[in-house]
Design goal:
By secondary structure, the chain is mostly helical. The chain is about 75% helix and about 0% strand. The chain has 23 helices and no strands. It has helices at about 15-20, 50-65, 70-90, 95-110, 115-125, 130-140, 145-160, 165-175, 180-190, 195-205, 215-230, 235-245, 250-265, 265-280, 285-295, 300-320, 330-340, 340-355, 360-375, 375-385, 395-405, 410-425, 430-450. The longest helix is centred in the last third of the chain and has 22 residues, at about 430-450.
Length: about 450
């Protein structure tokens, strides 16, 4: 999980929406004015749908629109559902379909809040976070209770590095539309500040005994991912097990469980699970994790298998860019460690470009590491320090800081940061953890030699 994100993403409650539509309900736009909650079903972020449910919901929406092609709310819902399909299925070509559906919604009813909220979700999915923020705020100008827009506004502010503003937006969303989407985003804002206990409390109160299977799987997975980032592999497995009991097909839970198994040293089991994940959704995160596990296992043929996974990352980046996605951060993170020389140079350019667009802990770390790998560790140290400045507990950031400190001659700092990475999460990366252990051992040997 090199790029921790809120377990929540803008998700369409497609089945519920489709049922509401086919029952004759209006979906999405509020006609009660901006200061009253919409009585209609609207785009609901973070319902953590199962893939089959989402597909059935899309089919129902398509059927509805064949019968009633001027239903602007249904077009908005369909557009946002396509965004979610693109994300969960690893198929960026769906974004073009989302574009067309949302355009149609806004042509039929200019300025409708459901269409604008869908635009915010699409912009965020394409990593156009300024655009996502503009669209979310435009939707909230129309309907201040639009759940999708409230969630996308928080996401955009987080991804722009405006953490204080994101915290205020989360508080405001909680006052207007409290629920799972707000709690999960609030938790992530707390985690970014280093408040892991606060994040865990927020997630723990996100769902009650009567929660639906989707919400239960989604929140349990978020708790599992949080535990994994703290190196609590047993707790991660417990939470992922809870998620999978609610939804046995939930890919984020399967990925989280595989990473926890890897952290416990069960490499074969982790590889089998991740192979299932990438077969269904070939996204950069699990592809890199699977490739690194092959590298770490080191059986005959494993190196070639690892290269296959990294090549798929490059293919995904190219496909994403062809469909309007800014994939610079994904490329920088994956290809700095696992690309060839030309790809590493491209990764550095991508990291620089992303830093120009937004200053977050993730872009700072990506740029720091790309500069270091390019032999420019003095420059890298500035960004490594920024990446570790908020208190966010991410072992890969600590490892990168240690390696960069060592490269510029700060031996004590290198040992301290590398050891901190392993203490926090000894399974943060099969290859990175091995390098961190070697760095700590070398530093200890050097210190012992100096003492004698």
């Amino acid at each position: 999980m090199a790029l921790p994100r809120p377990a929540g993403r803008p998700v369409v409650a497609a089945v519920a929406l489709a049922l509401a539509i086919t029952a004759g309900a209006v979906v999405g736009g509020s006609e009660d004015g901006p200061d009253r909650p919409s009585p209609y079903v609207d785009v609901a972020p973070d319902a953590a749908l199962r893939g089959a449910d989402l597909s059935r919901g899309v089919e129902a929406l398509q059927s509805r629109l064949r019968a009633r092609p001027t239903d602007f709310g249904a077009w908005a819902t369909l557009g946002t559902a396509y965004v979610e399909q693109a994300r969960t299925q690893g198929d960026p070509s769906r974004y073009r379909e989302a574009d067309r559906a949302l355009d149609r919604s806004l042509e039929l009813r200019p300025g409708n809040d459901a269409g604008l909220a869908g635009r915010a979700a699409l912009a965020a999915a394409r990593h156009d976070f300024p655009g996502a923020l503009r669209a979310a705020e435009a939707a909230l100008d129309v309907n201040r209770y639009n759940a999708g827009a409230l969630a996308s506004r928080i996401d955009a502010l987080v991804e722009l590095g405006r953490y204080e503003a994101a915290a205020r937006a989360a508080d405001e969303a909680d006052a207007r539309r409290p629920g799972v989407p707000v709690f999960t985003r609030y938790a992530y804002v707390r985690e970014l500040r280093g408040d892991v206990a606060g994040a865990r409390r927020a997630l723990s109160r996100a769902v009650g005994p009567g929660a639906g299977a989707g919400d239960a799987a989604y929140v349990a997975t978020a708790l599992g991912q949080l535990a994994w980032r703290q190196g609590e592999f047993g707790e991660a497995l417990k939470q992922c097990g809870k998620a999978l009991r609610a939804d046995a097909s939930y890919l984020p839970a399967l990925e989280c469980r595989a990473r926890a198994w890897a952290g416990q040293g069960d490499t074969g089991r982790a590889i089998r699970e991740l192979r299932e994940v990438v077969a269904r959704s070939a996204l950069p995160g699990p592809l890199v994790a699977l490739g690194e596990l092959y590298e770490a296992r080191g059986r005959p043929g494993d190196r070639a298998k690892a290269r296959e996974q990294y090549a798929l990352v490059s293919a995904w980046v190219a496909l994403a860019r062809a469909n309007g996605v800014n994939a610079d951060l994904d490329a920088a993170v994956a290809l700095t460690d696992h690309g060839d020389r030309a790809e590493r140079k491209a990764a550095l350019r991508a990291a620089k470009a992303e830093w120009q667009r937004r200053h977050t802990v993730h872009t700072a770390d990506a740029l720091a590491w790309a500069l270091h790998v390019d032999g420019r560790s003095d420059e890298a140290l500035v960004y490594a320090r920024r990446a570790t400045a908020t208190g966010f507990r991410e072992a890969s950031f600590l490892y990168h800081r240690g390696a960069i400190e060592g490269a510029v001659g700060n031996a004590a700092a290198a040992r301290r940061w590398s050891a901190a990475a392993l203490e926090l999460n000894p399974g943060f990366s099969p290859t990175g953890a091995k390098a961190a252990k070697a760095a700590v051992a070398a530093a200890a040997k050097a210190a012992k030699g100096q003492a004698s």
